[in-house]
Write a sequence for this structure.
């Protein structure tokens, strides 16, 4: 179990993706990600060149990437507002800027969960047993100081990330890189030739594709010269550090400016001249700045959605990841430990009547374990139907004919749905079915720190809590989450056993079977109550083009100034 | 005088120690475990323990306290859990922004409050007096956060008279030398950038100064009224001095005395009051730093910032005392009597 957990670490914080690159590949074949990358790549890269010729006349400077409306253009300065400034060190912190400066072998598809686009590798081969990964570096990929990305340079970066005792291994410890919590999983990292790196593992890593597409703490290529010069602090001013589409230019305490990397391997991209991250901690100030045209984009939460929804000058879009709200239970509790009570709670809730109030982008989560659209999703396991009378009966048969007291703990997370509104609405519905619900609001960090725990945790501090799960679209990470978000798994060894099998299997069909079984188990036990989910909602100014295909990478984006 | 100074320093040091100790333990009493926060949801207990050890949280609390004091003595405030950067460096890079804002607010306060207070006191019970008193009681009650947002909305957004926050326009690039944008712009020989910085500074400074202007106006008015009623002022009047001379030389000069005491402390308290203003105006100062760190329980940062501000308080307080004792022998005498 120890072995399995660490490899899931990267998933929990990854952005998008699907797990089973191996799925479509026949048994016994050597899997080549090249095929998949090429397929995705063509799809994405073909459209510009296909329509580029006839749209060319409209382009002011170049006609590489016309936007869907048929206009084309390039250039401009794009300004995005965020709440805080972090160092641009992909080994120790996560920030939007890292995703522009650094690259991984693959890149997550901006909108399609589980699709990948090319990064600095033009192919990655995986051996049959899933133990050997061969990364073919794309010729012509250069660090921002003009030095080439070679196998030697890549081995240097991978070693310092994979081995905690490496002399350049820095505070990245805290970000729990994919291999670090699992010492010994990487047995060798070697340069096969000048442009090829081979990675040998001691056991298969079920979701390696996500790691390969992770620019932060995963397989980011960082310039060895830059790290050697300042291992701890290079992230403050990462000049020449990455191979990504934008290069670090300058930084203050309230802004980071990146400029276009003219030597980027994908010729003609990126389109923007400058990409700026501006720190604006107050959401109200961000909203005004967007309306005033001082910034072009920010991620919206809660109340601002309503204020922007009908604004003709603002484009509201959604991007991965998904955030799902659910009710978690304490299985040691004399009330919520009873399955009938949990089912009664589930049947007392009518999410359809609430969801509209929460966010126009929210969807009711109808099933258990996975979000709709993910591989292995069981659409036959539907929600326990809303039926307050049945809920009352269940409560009576559980030994509470006069109703029961419940303490419902919640916090207001900065992402996802408005949990205060949601908790109040649920309280009202539960009252009708005979639950006397006391709401207990706590602060976000406390909820975050006590609501999540190690897999198979035995204690859970709340009787019943409104919690949040994020998904990059990876079913493995999502299902693994149910082992850590309550003490359900500790009392259901069969679930933990499935979990253990899930993270070690290499066979895609077996994996899908396990997904199915786990969902069935969560459903039968009413392990939690799924409520509703939403993607990240993003507000963008109308003069930004190509943003529909840019979630976290801004290659095809340009700004009309 | 020297002995007084030494005494003052010693008591300042004791105060600082109390603050440091209190901060250390209060931060640790807050529920929540930073090690679990840093670990991913799927981390095993062993992994969480490793992180705890890495953060130095596995030692007994008294040992942690000892280590902390030892580091503090070397001006080592620790490193931020989240960014891995030394807290001192972060503070030093952010303090100038906060001090610039606080100083601007303080100057505004004095420029407005002193004349208004004087006029209100001299023309006591006039319409001016009533209006100024009424206005200041209303303003004193306005929450800084709300005032800031309203300013932003009305003057920056609706009327478009000022920028929507930050210290400079996004296109402006200025090499940081002192960290004070105004000074840096002038050093670089770019007066237009200095003007731009002033333009950015105006709204947050006014928002920050507003409640204090009201306070200072009332203080000045009350203090001057008191002095004007004293014997020496009556004597000056009796000597036939002009009204202006009586008020300015005998009245205002003496009335300013109590304000000097508050003056230094006001600067430091503006630093803390600035937290909310900094957030609304995206001002990259210490307040902003404290706010984001609090949200993620970044202990070293919260501790370091609180202690830095407390130390500033203590230092400024000591300096004010010494300066006052030097200016006014009566104060020295009273303080020595108490010491």
């Amino acid at each position: 179990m120890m072995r399995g957990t660490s490899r899931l670490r990267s998933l929990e914080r990854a952005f998008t993706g699907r797990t089973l690159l191996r799925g479509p590949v026949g048994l016994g074949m050597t899997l080549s990600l090249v095929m998949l990358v090429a397929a995705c790549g063509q799809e994405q890269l073909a459209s510009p060149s296909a329509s580029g010729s006839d749209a060319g006349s409209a382009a002011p400077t170049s006609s590489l990437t016309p936007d869907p409306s048929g206009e084309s253009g390039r250039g401009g300065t794009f300004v995005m507002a965020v709440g805080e400034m972090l160092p641009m060190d992909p080994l120790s912190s996560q920030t939007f800027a890292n995703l522009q400066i650094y690259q991984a072998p693959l890149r997550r598809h901006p909108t399609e969960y589980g699709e990948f686009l090319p990064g600095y590798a033009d192919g990655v081969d995986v051996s049959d047993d899933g133990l050997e990964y061969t990364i073919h570096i794309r010729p012509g990929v250069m660090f921002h100081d003009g030095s080439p990305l070679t196998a030697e340079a890549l081995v240097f970066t991978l070693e310092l990330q994979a081995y905690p005792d490496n002399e350049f291994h820095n505070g990245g410890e805290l970000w729990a890189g994919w291999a670090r919590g699992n010492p010994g999983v990487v047995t060798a990292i070697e340069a096969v030739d000048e442009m090829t790196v081979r990675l040998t593992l001691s056991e298969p890593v079920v979701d390696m594709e996500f790691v390969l597409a992770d620019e932060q703490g995963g397989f980011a290529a960082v310039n060895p010269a830059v790290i050697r010069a300042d291992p701890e602090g290079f992230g403050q001013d990462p000049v020449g550090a990455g191979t990504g589409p934008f290069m670090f230019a300058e930084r203050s305490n309230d802004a980071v400016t990146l400029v276009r990397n003219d030597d980027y391997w994908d010729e003609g991209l990126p389109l923007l001249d400058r990409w700026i991250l501006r720190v604006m901690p107050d959401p109200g100030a961000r909203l005004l700045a967007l309306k005033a045209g001082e910034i072009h984009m920010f991620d919206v939460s809660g109340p601002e959605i309503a204020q922007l929804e009908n604004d003709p000058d603002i484009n509201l879009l959604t991007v991965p990841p998904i955030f799902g709200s659910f009710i978690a239970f304490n299985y040691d509790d004399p009330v919520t430990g009873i399955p009938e009570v949990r089912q009664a709670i589930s049947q007392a809730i009518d999410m359809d009547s609430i969801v509209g109030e929460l966010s126009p982008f929210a969807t009711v989560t109808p099933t258990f374990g996975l979000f709709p659209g993910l591989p292995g999703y069981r659409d036959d396991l539907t929600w326990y139907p809303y039926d307050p009378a049945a809920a009352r009966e269940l409560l009576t048969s559980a030994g509470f004919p006069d109703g029961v007291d419940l303490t419902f703990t919640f916090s207001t997370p900065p992402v996802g749905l408005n949990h205060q509104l949601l908790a109040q609405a649920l309280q009202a519905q539960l009252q009708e079915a005979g639950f006397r619900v006391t709401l207990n609001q706590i602060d976000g960090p406390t909820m975050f720190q006590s609501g999540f725990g190690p897999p198979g945790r035995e204690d859970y501090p709340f009787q019943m809590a409104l919690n949040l799960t994020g998904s990059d679209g990876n079913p493995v990470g999502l299902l693994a989450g149910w082992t850590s978000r309550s003490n359900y798994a500790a009392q259901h060894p069969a679930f933990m056993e499935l979990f253990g099998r899930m993270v070690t299997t290499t066979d895609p069909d077996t994996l899908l079977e396990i997904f199915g079984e786990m969902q069935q188990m969560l459903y039968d036990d009413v392990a939690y109550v799924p409520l509703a989910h939403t993607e990240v909602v993003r507000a963008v100014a109308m003069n930004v083009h190509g943003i529909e295909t840019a979630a976290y990478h801004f290659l095809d984006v340009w700004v009309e100034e | 005088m020297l002995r007084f100074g030494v005494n003052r320093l010693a008591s300042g040091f004791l105060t600082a120690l109390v603050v440091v100790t209190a901060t250390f333990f209060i931060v640790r009493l807050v529920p929540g475990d930073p090690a679990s926060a840093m670990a991913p949801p799927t981390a095993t207990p062993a992994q969480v323990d490793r992180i705890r050890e890495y953060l130095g949280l596995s030692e007994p609390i008294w040992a942690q306290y000892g280590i902390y004091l030892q580091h503090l003595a070397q001006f080592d405030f620790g490193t931020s859990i989240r960014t891995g950067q030394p807290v001192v460096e972060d503070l030093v890079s952010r303090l100038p922004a906060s001090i610039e804002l606080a100083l601007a607010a303080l100057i505004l306060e004095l420029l407005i409050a002193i004349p208004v207070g004087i006029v209100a006191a001299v023309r006591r019970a006039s319409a001016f007096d009533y209006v100024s008193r009424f206005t200041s009681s209303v303003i004193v009650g306005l929450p800084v956060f709300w005032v800031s947002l309203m300013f932003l909305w009305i003057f920056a957004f609706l009327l478009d008279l000022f920028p929507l926050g930050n210290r400079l326009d996004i296109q402006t690039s200025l090499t940081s030398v002192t960290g004070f944008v105004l000074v840096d712009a002038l050093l670089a020989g770019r007066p237009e950038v200095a003007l731009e910085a002033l333009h950015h500074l105006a709204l947050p400074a006014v928002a920050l100064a507003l409640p204090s202007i009201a306070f200072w106006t009332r203080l000045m008015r009350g203090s001057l009224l008191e002095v004007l009623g004293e014997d020496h002022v009556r004597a000056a009047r009796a000597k036939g001095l002009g009204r202006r001379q009586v008020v300015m030389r005998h009245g205002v000069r003496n009335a300013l005395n109590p304000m000097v005491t508050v003056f230094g402390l006001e600067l430091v308290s503006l630093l803390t009051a600035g937290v909310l203003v900094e957030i609304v105006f995206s001002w990259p100062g210490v307040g902003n730093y404290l706010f984001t760190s609090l949200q993620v329980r970044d202990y070293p940062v919260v501790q370091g910032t609180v202690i830095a501000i407390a130390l500033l308080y203590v230092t400024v307080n000591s300096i004010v005392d010494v300066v006052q004792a030097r200016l006014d022998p009566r104060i020295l005498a009273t303080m020595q009597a108490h010491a």
